[in-house]
Design brief:
By secondary structure, the chain is an alpha+beta fold. It contains five helices and five strands; from the N terminus they run H-E-E-E-E-H-H-E-H-H. It is a multi-pass membrane protein.
């Protein structure tokens, strides 16, 4: 039981931070950052939804939102948005399911097998969340790197060049955390399935035993009452 609690708490903290990292990564503005910051007086960051410029000297930040979501955007931007939002939803719901499956939460306290299945479902959802998260963040980073390398290879200088920033790294970290927590909940928690199933069946057998004993006691007293009634009926008939 102690090992089971430990695995649940480790999976809980991993799922919490992984979901938080994915959500923060999706809605922050530094997926791309200018690579020539030593020559610039400002830091330029591009996110999935807006672009921000921060002055190096006074720290004043100015952000410009992109056009409407229905406007034409690059395939990289649209697909990364879709994959990261999917990862956010799956990791969020996986974390909520995990909270309900914790033994310390008073939800279905007499059904350990059901709570264990809830933890397994949470693990599967976290594993699924890690797939679009890692795909979107790594693909975005590789695309930025390939674009920058091709410009350098052809000696093309557009005034500013980008490298992937901390939001992209945060997306990768959150996705890897989802894989770790999901693997922990699906693989390790599965080992406790037999224990929880045994407790469930033993409790059911105990209740069934009590029910059978009550039935036997009732049946033991039933013939004597029937015999007494028969004797009274025989006496009344003779009279």
């Amino acid at each position: 039981a102690g090992m089971k609690f430990f695995l649940q708490y480790v999976g809980f903290f991993l799922a919490f931070f992984s979901a938080a990292f994915l959500i923060i990564s999706t809605w922050t503005d530094c997926w791309m950052v200018n690579a020539d910051d030593s020559l610039e007086v400002s830091t330029k960051c591009r996110g999935l939804w807006w672009e921000c410029v921060t002055n190096v000297f006074d720290g004043i930040q100015t952000c410009d939102e992109y056009d409407s979501i229905y406007a034409e955007h690059s395939v990289k931007l649209v697909l990364t948005r879709a994959m990261m939002i999917t990862a956010d939803l799956l990791s969020g719901f996986g974390f909520l399911f995990l909270v309900l499956g914790l033994d310390c939460v008073k939800f279905l306290p007499d059904e350990p097998l059901i709570k264990l299945r809830i933890c397994l479902v949470s693990g599967v959802m976290l594993l699924l969340a890690g797939l679009p998260g890692i795909t979107g963040s790594v693909w975005y980073a590789v695309d930025v790197y390939v674009e920058r390398s091709s410009l350098l290879f052809h000696n093309v200088f557009l005034g500013i060049q980008y490298k992937f920033g901390w939001s992209c790294w945060l997306g990768m970290a959150g996705s890897l955390g989802c894989f770790l927590s999901g693997s922990l909940l699906t693989c390790c928690m599965y080992l406790f399935r037999e224990t929880s199933s045994g407790r469930f069946h033993s409790a059911y057998s105990l209740r069934k035993g009590y029910s059978s004993a009550a039935t036997v006691v009732t049946n033991v007293h039933l013939p004597s009452s029937q015999t007494a009634t028969s004797k009274m009926y025989a006496v009344d008939t003779r009279v």
